[in-house]
Amino acid sequence: MENTTTNKSKVFDMVLIAMFAVLIAICSWTSIPSTIPFTLQTFGVFCAVGLLGGKRGTLSVLIYILLGAVGLPVFAGFKGGIGALLGPTGGYIAGFLFTALVMWIFTHFFGEKTVSLIIAMILGLFVCYAFGTIWFVIVYSKANGAIGIMQALSWCVIPYLIPDALKIALAFALVKLIPKKYLNR
């Protein structure tokens, strides 16, 4: 009987992980075009880790990235493929995985209390900004000539601070609103 329960639990986990990978894709399609598109991807990442926990949430993000890497159009602008990951915005996509890992590690050590979860989301976002901006500078500079870090920050980070703060607030509200008992078996 225990083996059946364990198998049902694993299937339930796989379904949730897949659902949240799809949620992140849907969030990426909700986009306002720009140098770096305004999307809801980070909102999806925050929700995945916040609701599913570190392991399952991070797996959702990894699956999302792998789906895009093999060519499925799950990234912003319905893009997919290795070219999207190697392009100027690819560092932000890879940064989503680092966001999830930072959130997982932080909440593992400090719990999922209100302050801890908010700090985990903020730290995760800044790690994504750092990784994505460094990648952007490298790729953009190779294609278009040197660009300074301040210029890259003015294009890639500063315009997103307020929208990303709103995404954190909304994701946090959803994480606190949805009881964990529905997401655990």
Question: What is the domain total for the residues?
Answer: 1
Rg, alpha carbons: 17 Å
Distance between the termini: 15 Å
Instruction: Count every beta strand, where a strand is a DSSP E run of 2 or more residues.
Output: 2
Task: Give the uncertain stretches in residue-range form.
Answer: none
Class per helix and strand makeup: mainly alpha
CATH topology: Arp2/3 complex 21 kDa subunit ARPC3
Mean pLDDT, rounded to whole units?
93
Order of helices and strands: HEEHHHHHHH
Can you offer a commentary on this structure?
- The protein has 185 residues and is mainly alpha-helical.
- The protein has a single domain, classed as Orthogonal Bundle (Arp2/3 complex 21 kDa subunit ARPC3).
- It is built from 8 helices and 2 strands; from the N terminus they run αββααααααα.
- The protein has helices at 2-29, 41-52, 54-69, 82-86, 90-110, 114-144, 149-156, 161-177; strands at 31-32, 38-39.
- A two-stranded antiparallel sheet has the order 1-2.
- α1 packs antiparallel against α2, α1 crosses α3 and α6 packs antiparallel against α8 (161-177).
- The model has no long low-confidence stretch (mean pLDDT 93).
